[in-house]
Amino acid sequence: MPTGAGGAVVEAMTDLPRRRVETPSGALSVIDLPRWLGTHLPHMPFVLRVLVENHIRAGGDRIAMEAALASWRGGTRPHHDLTLRPDRLLMHDTTCTPALVDVAAMRTALAGQGVDPRRLSPTLPVDVSVDHSLAVDAYGSPDALAHNSANEIARNKERYSFLKWASAALDGVRVHPPGTGIMHTLNMEQLAQVVWAGPDGTAHPELMLGTDSHTPMVNGLGVMAWGIGGLEAQCVMFGDPVSIAWPEVVGVRLEGRLPAGVLSTDLALHVTHHLRALGVAGRFVEFFGEGVSTLRADDRAVVANMAPEYGATTGYFPPDAESLSYLCRTEREALAPRAAPVLQAMGVWFSPADSPVYDDETIIDLS
Q: Which region, left, alpha or beta, applies to residue 22 given φ > 0 means left and ψ of -120 to 50 means alpha?
């Protein structure tokens, strides 16, 4: 087995160690990151822990990853691409309609050649939010909702009919009908799982992608996510991995506690102003420190939602007990018991005492 900097033993990537984790809902198998990364794991940003785990599980270049990790342990950001496979895809009507029209056209072409068109179906769950571009024609009256809903259905009858066909014809595509909420609300309150458990008895930290720049809102819950374009989403939909360069990670140490009367929006605007001045464009942002534990997941989500406004790919809050509390508050109690044992066993469970090493670091005093 190769030895990393500081004498830590690193398992060969061709024989990744796995670990059995007992949860209230049964045993799950996870990649044993603490054993594989050794003493370097506590100093690795949570962003990198999640991305590296996904890369090696997705069948990325393992030899190159060993070299990249050795470089990172030596204090140099690796020039290496990460190959990632998201667990699910979230789209809104603006991007999903043309994408699904493309799919319908391809299925028609396959059928014309005598091929079963059902062979062309998404390989991962795809959720579609229809409410993202609703118009408001009436407001301030008791019948406003009914009036606006009737207008939307009349205007979009053809598009809604097509989306309903897609949800029935394409395995794995689920369309959330008008009136059920925009994609970020659905993502936070209904879809996010924090830990993704597969039918094969394995589990891992959840990673998802969405066709909107504000997809990182769910980072506030401890779910790794960012926004992509419609064409990239089509590739992901049919099993192509996502490739990203090894990211620069900026750590934002939160200290203190918000005073009474200070809103999540106040905090988000302050963080945005601070990070714009620092310069985080194209970088991954991660929040850490004792101040994180004073914020509810709701507050974290508002800050994470502003990631595109401060220019970062993510605004990531690693998962902790507050993430599980939010799952319970939003009627997903069944998901919470498995999350903590899995994340703790994998070394991706947040503690205020954590001391990751970042490419750049800044401090924000919540008080």
A: beta
